[in-house]
Amino acid sequence: MMIMTLYNVGQHKLRTILEEKQETIPNQVKKSIKNPTLQWVFRILDTISIVRIVIDKANNIVQELTGNLTELSRRIIGYFGEAAMKIYGVI
Question: Quick check: 73 and 84 in contact, CB under 8 A?
Answer without folding.
Answer: no
